[in-house]
Amino acid sequence: MNEIAPEGHAPLTELSFTVSGYVSRPVADVYEAVADPDRLSKYFTTGGARGRLTSGATVSWDFHDFPGAFDVRVLEATPPNKIVIQWDGTATAGGGPTTVTFEFEPVDDGARTLVTIVESAWTLTDGGATNAFGNCVGWTGMLAAMKVWLEHGINLRETFYR
Fold first, then answer.
1. What is the pTM of this model?
2. Which CATH superfamily is domain 15-152 in?
3. Domain map of the chain by residue range?
4. Distance (Å, rounded) from C-alpha 112 to C-alpha 47?
């Protein structure tokens, strides 16, 4: 395995990324937009979401741009601040799942929410980088779509992929 280490840092052994953005809604509303399958299906899972994100649950997400439902395992759901999920990835460290952590932080006296998404576990390979970059684009799109849907009621992804 390739190891990359900036001076004074431990070697890089896997790829991960962080995306974040502000949504002008209270933290509980933003959390529910991810945890509730009906709400998630309004702006993100273009093929539908089945099952609420609760600790220990396995739910299903489907996307028109990646047909075929994905199993999503919920490791932690702590309303209204944190959700941790795993789903199978390709080119991941050890051939296992990636871990995605959503954090919801109230800002501006609760009027807005900072959403931070971290996904990790890809190998330091061309395939790992390709999949990590692809998912980074996906989560950035999800944040943009969530913001527009929660703030303006517009579904950006409707007919975007079909």
1. 0.90
2. START domain (3.30.530.20)
3. 15-152
4. 28
Helix (H, G, I), strand (E, B) or coil at 153: coil
d(CA 153, CA 111): 18
Comparing CA positions, the residue from 124, 114, 139, 132 lying closest to residue 93 is 124
pLDDT digits (tens, 9 = 90+) for 50-86: 999 999 999 999 988 777 888 999 999 999 999 999 9
Alpha carbon distance 104, 125 (integer Å): 31
The closest alpha carbon to 54, from 80, 33, 77, 75, belongs to 77
Order of strands, sheet of 112-122, starting from the edge strand that comes earlier in the sequence: 15-23, 112-122, 97-107, 82-88, 70-78, 58-62, 48-50
Residue 95 DSSP code: G
